[in-house]
Design brief:
It contains ten helices and six strands. The protein has 311 residues and is α+β, with helices and mostly antiparallel strands.
Length: 311
């Protein structure tokens, strides 16, 4: 009889624990959804408080809101940009899917343990916590949105010079396999692209092509599926670059003249909106800089677009 009571008590406690867990999960989900709705309403208020007679914002006009915010971004205050940056990241993703997000996109990327645990594994990976990706470019963008502002501790982080390392991580997470190693090709080998350490002083186990902007450019110049070099000298060239680029493509921003260029910065395409390529990068972290603004601000004389992922 005592064993029966003990069994019934254990079963009762198990049922209660499951009920409490479910209730906590529902409460947390409601909290997240409420915060999501509040942020959207904040964006609507920010836009409408500008008093623009030509445009009235609502929750349902999210595509027009996105275009308005990108067009007038420089006019907003830093405090407004804090929530605007969130909205642009959230809804740029939604624009690519062509639907209003049913759940907050950020709630899907808050659990970074999935990436820390599996992002460097070339074998079968347990990524049951991630959403469905229609293309490898979307997968790379997903990783970029998680780690653009907080480095993945599974990899080295190079303060002030982390751009190529970050883009390499995005590409590798999107199933681009590493090539070579310290004993096969070596860190400076023409066919080496790898990172097998999280130390920023271990240059043997991280290839130059993985971590250095010019090394990255040189490697993908011969290993990309396709590439194109563009001069920023005309709007037509930007238009051609916009048409050629795909989500997940890498961009090397360069100095120098024809036949003698060197890459100074590396970024990844995470969106295309109103004729502008949206880029993510480390070293001055960003998730939605435009190609035009980067080239103009830094006086780059050209840029490569590398199609690396088989979308």
């Amino acid at each position: 009889m005592k064993k029966l009571y003990a069994t019934l008590l254990a079963l009762l406690l198990l049922i209660l624990n499951i009920s409490f867990a479910k209730a906590a999960g529902v409460e947390e989900e409601m909290c997240t959804q409420n915060k999501f709705d509040v942020n959207i309403q904040t964006i609507v208020d920010i836009i409408n408080n500008r008093g623009d007679a030509d445009y009235e914002s609502t929750k349902e006009t999210w595509k027009d809101n996105l275009a308005y915010l990108n067009k007038n971004y420089s006019l907003f205050s830093d405090s407004e940009k804090a929530v605007i940056d969130w909205y642009i990241m959230e809804f740029s993703w939604a624009a690519r899917l062509n639907e209003f997000p049913a759940i907050p996109y950020n709630t899907m990327v808050e659990n970074k343990e999935v990436f820390t645990k599996s992002s460097k594994t070339d074998d079968a990976q347990d990524r049951s916590g991630e959403p469905y990706f229609a293309t490898l470019g979307e997968k790379a963008t997903y990783y970029a949105s998680v780690y653009y502002n907080s480095p993945n501790p599974a990899y080295p982080y190079y303060v002030g010079a982390d751009c190529a390392n970050f883009v390499s991580q995005c590409l590798h997470y999107a199933d681009k396999p590493m090539a070579g190693s310290a004993v096969s090709g070596g860190p400076n080998g023409i066919n080496s692209w790898y990172c097998y350490t999280n130390s920023n002083t271990d240059y043997t186990n991280t290839s130059e092509s993985w971590r250095a902007a010019n090394g990255f450019c040189n490697y993908w110049y011969t290993h990309a599926l396709s590439k194109g070099f563009y001069s920023p000298s005309s709007a037509a060239n930007y238009g051609a670059a916009y048409q050629a680029a795909k989500i997940g493509d890498a961009i090397s921003l360069c100095y120098g003249s024809s036949g003698n260029v060197w890459a100074h910065h590396t970024m990844i395409v995470v969106g295309k909106l109103n004729g502008q390529l949206l880029l993510a990068a480390h070293t001055n972290p960003t998730i939605n800089s435009t190609l035009l603004s980067k080239v103009t601000a830094n006086g780059y004389t050209g840029f490569y677009i590398f199609n690396i992922l088989a979308n």
